């Protein structure tokens, strides 16, 4: 429930009463000190927009004094009727509520910076030890959702200060995350806690974040669209914030780890992925707000500021679309190579000499900053029952891959040995 407080001049009282009574909105009227009155209107959450529209149609100046407050419950002659009418209806928040909710998501500078650093440290540890649970934990505490949403809200409302503050918080927050990750990774490396010559692309949680690809863009778009829809509803956005952090924080940590290992190509590739993901999330949120009509709903935005914001955002969208198409084409090439690699492994296993081997997984590692370049290595995990020459198998797989794809790839085979037995009736 919501409780709408609005001041109305004496000359508009009758028009407001008639409009509210026609829609079955119950209200009380309280005199004010400036020869006007205040209407207090308890309504379902989804009805706030209709109430404001009725007040505006009655020529009430909403900018003079309008407050929308939360209410635990309302017991009026029409409350049950209104609740039945608006129950189950998806109705986005009003622009006033939207802007307030977006601002409430923003933290103060100190706590925001501290949580970004802590989440990056946790993500770095998770990447280096290969623990998905620890990486997920880093996403839970990351406060990136506030800045990621307020930029789009500022765009549709023409609030240039909100846009600038949001973009700045996103930028320095991710820079802090990268710096913290680099510091911790360097301490691990030079402190002897992890091998100094560790092959970063071989790490499972690291290898998927080496460069932009279509799958990463799909995740970013879905996270942004979910955040936009969640922002416009009355529900909490904490769970959606985890999804946005999932697309950003581990990638920022991967960039920091690459810097600590002085791997320039990896650092550039992960940084590009981070930037592309951040931009795509912002544009996806903005797309939801525009489609839901928040540009036209905003009543107090300077038209010139709003136009300039939308033009700048449109140009940014064109850049992202071009990059998306480019990355999509490169991803198609990668998928084709991955299929050929998997087929080459199966073809090699058809040799009777490898009858004791069964493929468990085939993972292709790309270590270059660009998705256009070929793979660097392939890791084949096989189950082994009995004697088998895995070193010769690796050589044969590499030769088959080169014949099928023309790529000279380093093949690594990880055998998993097991013994089988059965109990038969005697």
Automatic annotation (TrEMBL):
The chain crosses the membrane at residues 109-129, 135-157, 169-190, 210-232, 239-262, 268-296, 308-330. PANTHER family: AT15442P-RELATED (PTHR20992). InterPro entries: DUF389. This is TIGR00341 family protein. Keywords: Membrane, Transmembrane, Transmembrane helix. It comes from the Archaea. The keyword Transmembrane helix applies.
């Amino acid at each position: 429930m919501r409780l709408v407080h609005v001041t109305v001049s004496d000359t508009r009282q009758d028009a407001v009463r008639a409009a509210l009574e026609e829609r079955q909105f119950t209200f009380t009227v309280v005199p004010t000190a400036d020869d006007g009155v205040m209407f207090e209107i308890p309504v379902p959450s989804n009805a706030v927009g209709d109430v404001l529209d009725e007040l505006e149609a009655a020529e009430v100046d909403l900018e003079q004094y309008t407050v929308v407050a939360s209410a635990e419950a309302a017991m009026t002659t029409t409350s049950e009727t209104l609740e039945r009418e608006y129950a189950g209806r998806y109705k986005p928040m009003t622009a006033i509520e939207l802007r307030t909710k977006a601002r409430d998501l923003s933290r103060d500078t100190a706590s925001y910076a501290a949580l970004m650093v802590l989440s990056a440290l946790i993500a770095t540890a998770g990447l280096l030890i290969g623990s998905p649970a620890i990486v997920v934990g880093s996403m839970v505490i990351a406060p990136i959702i506030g800045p990621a949403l307020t930029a789009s809200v500022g765009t549709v409302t023409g609030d240039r200060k909100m846009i600038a503050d949001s973009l700045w918080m996103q930028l320095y927050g991710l820079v802090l995350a990268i710096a913290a990750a680099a510091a911790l990774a360097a301490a691990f490396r030079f402190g002897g806690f992890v091998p100094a010559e560790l092959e970063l692309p071989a790490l499972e949680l690291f290898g998927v974040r080496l460069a932009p690809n279509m799958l990463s863009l799909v995740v970013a778009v879905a996270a942004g669209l979910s955040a936009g829809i969640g922002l416009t509803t009355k529900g909490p956005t904490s769970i959606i914030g985890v999804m946005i952090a999932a697309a950003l924080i581990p990638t920022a940590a991967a960039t920091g780890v690459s810097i600590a290992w002085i791997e320039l190509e990896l650092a550039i590739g992960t940084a590009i992925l981070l930037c592309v993901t951040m931009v795509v999330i912002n544009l996806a949120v903005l797309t939801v707000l525009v489609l839901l009509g928040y540009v036209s709903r905003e009543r107090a935005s300077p038209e010139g500021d709003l136009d300039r914001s939308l033009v700048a955002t449109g140009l940014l969208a064109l850049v992202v679309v071009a990059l998306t198409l480019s990355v999509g084409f490169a991803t198609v090439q990668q998928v084709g190579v991955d299929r050929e690699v998997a087929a080459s492994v199966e073809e090699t296993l058809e040799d009777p000499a490898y009858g004791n081997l069964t493929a468990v997984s085939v993972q292709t590692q790309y270590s270059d900053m660009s998705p256009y370049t070929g793979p660097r290595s392939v890791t084949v995990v096989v189950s082994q029952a009995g004697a088998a020459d895995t070193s010769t198998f690796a050589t044969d797989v590499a030769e088959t891959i080169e014949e099928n794809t023309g790529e000279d790839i380093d093949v690594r085979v990880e055998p998993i040995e097991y013994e089988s037995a059965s109990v038969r009736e005697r």
